[in-house]
């Protein structure tokens, strides 16, 4: 039986593939933990994480973690069993020490939309569609929103959450949810070219860039400038180190 998440590392690239195409790669708690484990235990030579989905869809949503009808869970139990697994997954990708590239085709709904948007670069096929449908079930999608804040304009998030509109790839690009849109037939080759370009750089350079992208937006101007100087100096100094 194949693993629900395929994790392969080669030449500085960590490929994570959602591998339950029969249900649209719905995210389960097990799948989320496998991704967290992979991202949290990177080899020091890894310079890029690439997240994609097998089959016709990137990720059509989440396997429902909600308690069975008739049960009376506490707020703490719901926080622990429903909210925290998803939040931990988003945080792991957002704070990964190297850039994360999502390669999106087909459906990216709910958790799938969050996974696509939380990554540093979102490459979308022209057949990709994005939706945040939780309010159709009267559920506030605060978890998905937390993943997208800082990555996607708030007006885009508000429109998708409140209207539940289905957003196509080109519109997602115009709204800041996708970084680039390519024909479906060219998705893999374009993802490979992006990966090859990033992998040309050293681990220390790539990780410095990711650290600055993560930390600088929330800092005062002077502090972000100091961080830029520190990271640049550290990365450049590695070029002058003599082999032991």
Automatic annotation (TrEMBL):
InterPro entries: ClpP/crotonase-like_dom_sf, Enoyl-CoA_hydra/iso, Enoyl-CoA_Hydratase/Isomerase
Gene Ontology molecular function, alphabetical: catalytic activity
Highest taxon above the source species: Bacteria
Gene3D superfamilies: 2-enoyl-CoA Hydratase, Chain A, domain 1
A Pfam short name: ECH_1
Family of the protein in this entry: Belongs to the enoyl-CoA hydratase/isomerase family.
Name the UniProt record assigns to this protein: Enoyl-CoA hydratase/carnithine racemase
Taxonomic source organism: Pigmentiphaga kullae
């Amino acid at each position: 039986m194949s693993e629900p998440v395929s994790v392969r590392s080669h030449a500085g690239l960590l490929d994570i593939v959602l591998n339950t195409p029969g249900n649209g790669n719905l995210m389960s708690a097990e799948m989320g933990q496998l991704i967290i484990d992979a991202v949290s235990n990177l080899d020091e030579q890894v310079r890029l994480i690439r997240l994609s989905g097998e089959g016709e869809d990137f990720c059509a949503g989440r396997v429902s973690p909600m308690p069975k009808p008739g049960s009376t869970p506490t707020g703490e139990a719901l926080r622990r069993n429903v909210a925290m697994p998803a939040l931990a997954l988003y945080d792991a990708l957002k704070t990964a020490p190297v850039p994360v590239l999502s390669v999106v085709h087909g459906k990216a709904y709910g958790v799938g939309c969050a996974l696509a948007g939380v990554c540093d670069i979102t490459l979308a096929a022209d057949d990709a569609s994005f939706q945040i449908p939780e309010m159709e079930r009267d559920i506030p999608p605060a978890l998905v929103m937390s993943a997208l804040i800082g990555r996607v304009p708030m007006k885009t998030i508000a429109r998708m959450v409140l209207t539940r509109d289905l957003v196509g790839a080109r519109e997602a690009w115009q709204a800041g949810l996708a970084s680039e849109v390519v024909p479906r037939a060219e998705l893999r080759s374009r993802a490979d070219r992006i990966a090859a370009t990033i992998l040309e750089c050293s681990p220390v350079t790539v990780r410095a860039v990711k650290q600055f992208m993560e930390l600088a937006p929330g800092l005062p101007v002077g502090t972000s400038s100091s961080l830029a100087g520190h990271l640049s100096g550290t990365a450049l100094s590695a070029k002058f180190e003599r082999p032991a």
